[in-house]
Design a protein that fits this description.
With about 425 residues, the protein is mainly beta. Helices cover about 15% and strands about 40% of the residues. The chain has one domain: 6 Propeller (Neuraminidase). It holds the Pfam family DUF4221.
Length: about 425
């Protein structure tokens, strides 16, 4: 009996030791993965697009997908469009809004997503003391303060909710510098700084090594440059027009940048000025997105610019979801400019779309394939990810309706 008890005790102690060793090994692997993820990856900064493509994603132990939840339809009037190139979401606690610039009325239109109706329309003057030349690029600081950065303007403009200009700040920027705006890179705000991408109107290959982001002090107009720098991958050959423009998501003190041709994230720390490279590749990207052979920038724009846009796959959005603490990155597959069967030009919006899901550390969680039938509008809301149905092949498409599909994040068992 005593021998049997001793045997059980030895087995129990052995099991505890094995469990302890497995636990130590597990946390050691986790720590190594974390350290690898948090390393500066300085050797990766100088890789070209083909070398970057060979880098493997960091994978999370969890898996996630996006599931269709509901269709949201909001009636619009005859002076409004059923899509927006630059929409903004604002959570006002008691209500949440889809906000868009209405070019026909020179107004900002606030659509209540819960009540499914137009809740507010703010008309702005185009000229004069309260003039705001362009409304498309704006940031909602709060429902009393709107910040505008009109395209081709050297002024940041702050208005109230009635359209009255409270402050007009001259931006201290060189004539050759361009504050880049795009669907994939909305304005962001941190402290007193308006964060936006900043480039020069020159061929990308001549801009390698310059800072691609900046902060504009909305009170003084002073411009502070931030990284990441334009990667050396753009120096080998010429890049298609616009594909060097940064797509970014500002989270805490980090500017996370994705360039349309590259399968990695460049993360720049605004406080330490450190930078690291993190792979985040779509499973539908089958080969590197090589840069254009053209070195003549002018001819490239006029001769092959459109063809490049159609036929090259690209990453077109990087969004952070603060409600669920995940990132979404949109990948768009290229299609032929001319349909081989019909001989007609394909529709630019018929390029298949997929959405990569990653955790806060850019570990790959999964990917949702949407295919064809959605417009390239994506908006993170407290209820989920809002995707526009403003595509003629979408069954919910209507010219007099703002229509969205709401997708909700779901972790898989």
């Amino acid at each position: 009996m005593k021998i049997q008890k001793t045997k059980y005790l030895i087995q129990f102690m052995f099991a505890k030791i094995v469990f302890f060793l497995i636990t130590v090994l597990f946390y050691s692997c986790q720590q190594q993965a974390k350290e690898k993820l948090e390393s500066t990856n300085t050797e990766w900064i100088n890789l070209n697009s083909e070398q970057l493509f060979k880098l493997n994603n960091y994978f999370s132990e969890k898996q996630a997908t996006l599931e269709q939840s509901e269709i949201i339809n909001i009636p619009i009037d005859s002076v409004s469009l059923n899509y927006s190139l630059y929409p903004v979401y604002y959570d006002a606690d008691t209500a949440h809004y889809y906000i868009t610039a209405n070019r026909n009325l020179h107004s900002l239109d606030f659509y209540d997503l819960s009540k499914k109706r137009l809740a507010k329309r703010i008309r702005f003057a185009k000229e004069g003391t309260d003039g705001v030349a362009g409304l498309s690029f704006f940031h909602i600081k709060n429902l009393d303060t709107l910040i505008f950065l009109p395209k081709n303007s050297k002024h940041a403009i702050i208005t109230d909710l009635k359209g009255k200009v409270l402050k007009r700040t001259y931006i201290e920027i060189d004539d050759e510098d361009d504050l880049r705006h795009s669907m994939g890179a909305p304005l962001a705000f941190r402290d007193s700084m308006l964060i936006v991408s900043k480039m020069k109107i020159k061929p990308p290959m001549s801009l390698v090594g310059i800072n691609t982001m900046c902060g504009i002090n909305i009170h003084t107009g002073k411009v502070t440059e931030y990284g990441p720098r334009l990667p050396i991958a753009f120096k080998e050959k010429q890049a298609p027009v616009g594909k060097e423009s940064p797509l970014f998501a500002l989270v805490d003190n980090k500017i996370n940048v994705r360039f349309g041709l590259l399968s990695v994230i460049y993360q720049y720390n605004m406080e330490t000025e450190g930078m690291k490279v993190i792979p985040l590749k779509s499973k539908f990207q089958k080969q590197p997105i090589t840069l254009s052979e053209y070195t003549d920038f002018v001819n490239m724009v006029h001769e092959v610019g459109e063809k490049q846009d159609y036929e090259k796959s690209s990453y077109q959005k990087l969004m952070y979801d603060p409600y669920r603490e995940v990132f979404y990155s949109v990948f768009v597959e290229g299609i032929p400019l001319i349909d081989e069967k019909t001989g007609k030009k394909n529709d630019y919006e018929d390029r298949p779309i997929s959405i990569i899901i990653a955790d806060k550390d850019f570990r790959y969680l999964g990917e949702k394939y949407l295919g064809v039938g959605y417009f390239r509008n994506f908006l993170v809301t407290k209820d989920g990810l809002l995707v526009s149905n403003a595509h003629s092949k979408n069954p919910h498409y209507q010219e007099d309706v703002l229509s969205f599909t709401l997708f909700k994040l779901k972790y898989q068992e």
